[in-house]
Amino acid sequence: MVSEDSDATGGDTSALALKILVAGGFGVGKTTLVGAVSEIRPLRTEELLSEAGQLVDDTDGVDHKTTTTVAMDFGRITIRSGLSLYLFGTPGQDRFWFLWDELSQGALGAVVLADTRRLEDCFPAVDYFEHRRIPFVVAVNCFTGARRHGAQDVSRALDLDRGTPVVLCDARDRDSGKEVLIRLVEYAGRMHTARLLDSVG
């Protein structure tokens, strides 16, 4: 999305805003990441976990979690002058997957957050973006006390396409989250450029 604004001299300046999805399994840190990096107060649609939800949501490994995103999280971050990212955090439970198609419309790319203690929880997100050819990076949220795994080990475990970036991060840390987003923008830019060249070649 591009918007045109006039500066004080009457000239036009172009500001580019890119749509980014933040996806992954239940309780992996999506809301935390959006909140940590957003320069505006993030929009959250969290509700308390209910007894009915406990029957369908797998809370193993996230026993401390008391709320869940039921629609989306939204935040904004300026990467540099003239370039902003609009962040849309997706709900992690299967029953909210009908929202993903709407949220993914017009997205430049996605961050798939992963927890190595429950790595299988991010398989659906990986499959979703691979099948729709939406560029994504896998960001391993390094939880305290969790065993550390290298990026190549995670890539092999997830059977990622060659070249898909895997980065380690702390979803609570703004600088760490910003680095993940920069890596995604760079990767997605290369992917979209390559596809454009293929289409005209």
Question: Explain this structure to me?
Answer:
The protein has 6 helices and 9 strands, in the order ββαβαβββαβαβαβα. The chain has helices at residues 30-37, 51-54, 100-104, 123-131, 151-158, 174-200; strands spanning 2-6, 12-24, 46-48, 67-69, 73-80, 83-89, 109-114, 136-141, 166-169. Strands 1, 2, 5, 6, 7, 8 and 9 form a 7-stranded mixed β-sheet that branches. A two-stranded antiparallel ribbon has the order 3-4. Helix 1 (30-37) packs across helix 6. It starts with a strand and ends with a helix.
Please describe the biggest sheet, giving its number of strands, its sense, and whether it closes into a barrel: 7 strands, mixed
The succession of helices and strands, N to C, reads EEHEHEEEHEHEHEH
What is the strand tally? 9
Broad structural category: alpha/beta
| Distance separating the two termini | 26 Å
User: What number is the mean pLDDT?
Assistant: 84
What's the helical proportion of residues? 25-40%
Strand content: 25-35%
> What is the 3D form?
globular
Low-confidence stretches: 8-12
Radius of gyration: 17 Å
Our count of helices gives 6
Briefly say what this structure is:
The protein is of the alpha/beta class. Helices cover 30% and strands 27% of the residues. The chain starts with a strand and ends with a helix.
Tag the structure with descriptive keywords.
about 200 residues; alpha/beta; globular; 9 strands; two-stranded antiparallel ribbon; 7-stranded mixed beta sheet
Question: Topology, pairings included?
Answer:
Layout: E1 2-6, E2 12-24, H1 30-37, E3 46-48, H2 51-54, E4 67-69, E5 73-80, E6 83-89, H3 100-104, E7 109-114, H4 123-131, E8 136-141, H5 151-158, E9 166-169, H6 174-200
Parallel strand pairs: 2-6, 2-7, 7-8, 8-9
Antiparallel strand pairs: 1-2, 3-4, 5-6
Helix pairs in contact: 1-6
